[in-house]
């Protein structure tokens, strides 16, 4: 499904292999969040073991993973643009130590050949604004070229520890932005949950490959859903 003409040329895609098999993907390993649902201006996600105390590590996420996976991909000329999610902790201070995101791999019905193994970067920042900063001062994580063993079925789940903990103070949100690199049609595709309720002001597209960015809500282009980006902390 394409966005409306004249606007951002992002594509919402469903991997052809997933459509053919309808088997979904293997269960996620580790302590990845299984479900989400944004609360009243806050983050959704799976609190650790249902523990709501401030001492319990937890994931911040806006949506749960869906099977088979859907994703969005850049169109020609948009390679390197960033997809970003705004995550809000349930209390302050909240110290983030780890981020996670889901990439989709393989051919698709949307024109892109999803490449989850491409080298890319992730920008992690904080702000009291609800829209990512045009020229942030982020923590930058560089993800090298992956290998075939990183993909399970059609999914690559990436988990990265921050080089140093990032503490959010009252009123601050966390922004996690992944650059979707490649050369069209071989480009990165990031997972999106378009089946469950979502907040339009939590999912953004950078409209540039480098700062200053022109962040725009995905919903502006009829791409409704929550990006599969999350963060862990306490």
Summarize the structure in words.
By secondary structure, the protein is an all-beta fold. The protein has one domain. It is about 5% helix and about 35% strand. It is built from one helix and 16 strands. Strands 1, 2, 3, 5, 8, 12, 15 and 16 form an eight-stranded antiparallel β-sheet that branches. It has a six-stranded antiparallel β-sheet with strand order 7-6-9-4-13-14, with no helix packed on it. Strand 10 (about 180-185) and strand 11 form a beta hairpin. The longest helix has 6 residues, at about 15-20. It is globular, with a radius of gyration of 16 Å. Residues about 1-10 and about 15-50 have low confidence and may be disordered.
Brief sketch in words of this structure:
With 234 residues, the protein is an all-beta fold.
Features of the shown structure:
single chain; 234 residues; mainly beta; eight-stranded antiparallel sheet; six-stranded antiparallel sheet; 1 helix; 16 strands; 3% helix; globular
Molecular shape: globular
Order of helices and strands: EHEEEEEEEEEEEEEEE
Which oligomeric state applies?
Answer: single chain
Q: What are the low-pLDDT stretches, counting only 5+ consecutive residues below 50?
A: 1-9, 15-50
Mean pLDDT: 82
The rounded Rg comes to 16 Å
Which percent band covers the strand fraction?
35-45%
Q: What's the number of domains? A: 1
Helical stretch count? 1
Largest sheet: 8 strands, antiparallel
Task: Report helical residue fraction.
Answer: under 10%
The structural class is mainly beta
Total beta-strand segments: 16
CA-CA gap between termini: 38 Å
């Amino acid at each position: 499904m394409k966005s409306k003409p004249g606007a951002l040329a992002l594509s919402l895609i469903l991997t052809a292999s997933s459509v053919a098999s309808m088997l979904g993907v293997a269960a996620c390993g580790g302590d990845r969040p299984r479900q989400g649902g944004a609360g009243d201006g806050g983050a959704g996600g799976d609190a650790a073991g249902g523990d709501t105390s401030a001492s319990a590590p937890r994931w911040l996420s806006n949506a749960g993973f869906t099977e088979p996976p859907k994703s969005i991909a850049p169109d020609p000329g948009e390679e390197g643009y960033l997809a970003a999610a705004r995550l809000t902790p349930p209390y302050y201070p909240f110290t983030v130590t780890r981020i996670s995101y889901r990439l989709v791999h393989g051919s698709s019905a949307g024109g892109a050949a999803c490449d989850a193994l491409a080298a890319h970067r992730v920008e992690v920042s904080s702000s009291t604004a609800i829209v990512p900063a045009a020229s942030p001062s982020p923590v930058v994580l560089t993800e090298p070229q992956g290998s075939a063993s990183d993909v399970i079925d059609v999914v690559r789940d990436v988990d990265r520890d921050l080089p140093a903990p990032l503490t959010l103070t009252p009123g601050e949100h966390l922004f996690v932005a992944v650059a979707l690199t490649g050369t069209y049609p071989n480009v990165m595709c990031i997972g999106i949950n378009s089946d469950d309720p979502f907040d339009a002001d939590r999912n953004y597209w950078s409209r540039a490959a480098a700062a200053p960015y022109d962040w725009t809500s995905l919903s502006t282009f009829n791409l409704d859903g929550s990006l599969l980006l999350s963060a862990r902390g306490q």
